Structure prediction request, 261 residues.
Amino acid sequence: MNSTMVTVTSRRKLFLAALAACSSHSMSALQTAQPYIPKQSDRPEPIEGDEAGFQSIFDGKTLNGWQGDAKYWRVADGIMTGEITPETVIKSNTFIIWQGGAPEDFELKVEYKITEAGNSGINYRSIVVEDKVTPSNKFAMRGYQCDIDGRNRYTGNNYEEKGRLFLAQRGEVTHVTGVRKPVLLSRAAESKTIMSFLTDGWNSAHLIARGNTLIHNINGHLMCMVIDDDPNRQRKGQIGVQVHVGPPMRVEYRNWRLKTL
Prediction:
C-alpha cells in the first residue's frame, strides 16, 4: 500500500471515529437532558397540538380496527357517524368498539358533534356484556362513560354504563368507595357555567385515566373528576362510543388520538 492510500485510509478512519463520537455524544445528551428548572415567573400554560406519544386510532376512511353494528355506524369524509333513523329505532344502547387493546392508564382525545335529540357517550375501561333486552345486540358495554347529549343536560358527567351509574356530575370532584353513595368533595364550577363552554358544533373531549383518578375535559374545561377507591372498580378495558335508546339521532366523531401511560 502506498503512502497516498495510507493517508486516505487514515483520514477515513478518523472521520468515521469522529462521526461515531458525535452520534454517541448526541444520544448521551438526549438521555441526560437537563430537567426543567422552574423560575418564579413561570406559570402553567397551554400547548399547541398534542404532547408527544399520542397516536391515531381511527384512519378516517374505514372502520378498520373497530367493531359495531353496520346498521348504525358508518364512516365518510374523515368522520365516524352513529345514527338512529325512524326505521332503526333501538331498544338497547349499542356501541362501536375499538379493537386495538384494553388500556389501563391513558389519555384519549376526540372531537364530537351531536344532534339536539341525540344521546351518546365515550366509554373506557369497559367490557362487553350480555344484553338481556336485545339478545342480538353483541355490542353492549359496561364501564366508565363520559356522557354526551345534544341538549347538554348530562354532557361531561362520569356515568358508569350498566354499573354504578352516576359517579360524578358536571362540575363535581367526587370520591367513590363502593360502600356508600359517591361523596362530593368540591365543585370546580356550577353546571350551568360549564355548560356555556359547550357548543352546538364540534367539541373537543380529553379524557385522562391514571390509577384511581378519572378526569373529563371538554373544550379545555374540567367537566368532572372522580377518585375511585372502590376495590371492585374496573382497572382496564375497551374504548367505545354509543348510540342511545330514544328518538332518531346522529352523533359524529373525528380525530381519535390515544396515548397510553
